[in-house]
Structures are given as structure tokens and as C-alpha cells.
Amino acid sequence: MRDLPLPLALTARLSPVAVLATAGWALASGPLAPTSAAEHRTGQQAPAQSSASAPSSTAAKKYAAAPAPCTSVTVNTVGALVPGAKTTGKEIPSTDAKLRRTCSWNALKGFDYRWLDVTFEIADSDAAAQKQYQARTTEKSGGGAVPGLGDSGYSVVNLTTEDKQQTREGVVIARAGNALVLVTYNGSNFETKKAPTTDVINKGAIKAAKDAVAALRSGTQS
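The chain above was modelled as a monomer; its predicted structure follows.
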């Protein structure tokens, strides 16, 4: 089954994260001040100059690079969520593959269309990732927390209708350390014009997100 272009209602994708700078270590120390001859004669010693290393600007990042996205979701999950899709998926070109990588799967089986995106984004620190997480969950308001998904998990499902054709889309956002996992899962039926139920889309998106977080934590790399 060849990949079909996404309908107009589904073309908005998650925007890439701005390129993040990497901080280094700075260490400095000074020599001891020499003792003068006069001080030797009087038995006095000049006080030593204090020397201290500058503190680290950031803690070491837990995740230095995004894992391979097209192997982050199991074959069984892809087969269940996107029937008829090539399980290998298609990686989307990125301006910085070390910091952001995305894989997509889509297929039309009969009249049922499904689309799945999984994205990994790497931030400079846990705090930076948490700030991005909060911004994204605020932008995608109306959802709720997903317990047990990474350090923080959130999901939201929305229904859109265009020319009487319904599309239901679920978005899951998870943070694990200094990494974000972003999942988009949607579906339509082009015969009935109806969309899958909220429960089907939400559970499917969460399942893909759990696979992706597990792949991140296992250190899967390309």
C-alpha cells in the first residue's frame, strides 16, 4: 500500500524546536604568592592566595542525542495503530538530527485512514525540557495528565470537521529528563465520514508514546 498524502485538515505538524546551545566547563586557579626574603628573616609567611574552581554551568545531560525514531515504536504497535502501513516508517528530515528526529507512518486500509508521528526533542537540561513541556501542554489545552508516562505525561484529543469529513486527532506530550517525546495520532473514515472514537485515538497515542519513552530510556540509537 503506498503512502497517501495527508488531507488538508491534518497538515499542521508540530514545529521544530529552536537549536539549543551546549555549555562547557570552566576551571581557573591561581599560583601561590611567593614568600619575600624579609618575611623569611622575620619568620612570617605571606598568606596564600585563595584558589577555587568555577562551578559547573550545567549538570551533565542525561540524553545527548535523539534516538532513532522509526525503531522507537514496536512493529506490533505500528501494525495495530496504522493497519497497512510499512512498519519501517519514514523519517522526516531535520535541521539538526542530534536534537530533533521524527518518524511518520500513514496508510489507508479500505476506507479507514490513520496517521502516526513520533518526535524526539533534546533540550540542554531537565529544566529547559520542563519549560518546553509546560509551554506545549498550555498550547494544547483541554487534555489531562497521563500517569506513569516518563517524568511527566499529558494527552489531549480533538475532533475537526471539514466538508462533513470528521478527523479525530490525539496528541501526547511526555518529558523524560532533558528529552521530550511528542506523539500525534489521528484517523478518519472516508466512507462514513466519521472519525474513530476519542478512546481509540487517545489509547493509541498513549501506547505509541510509552513505546517511544521506553526506547529513549533504553538508549536506542541509529
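The first helix runs from residue 37 to 42.
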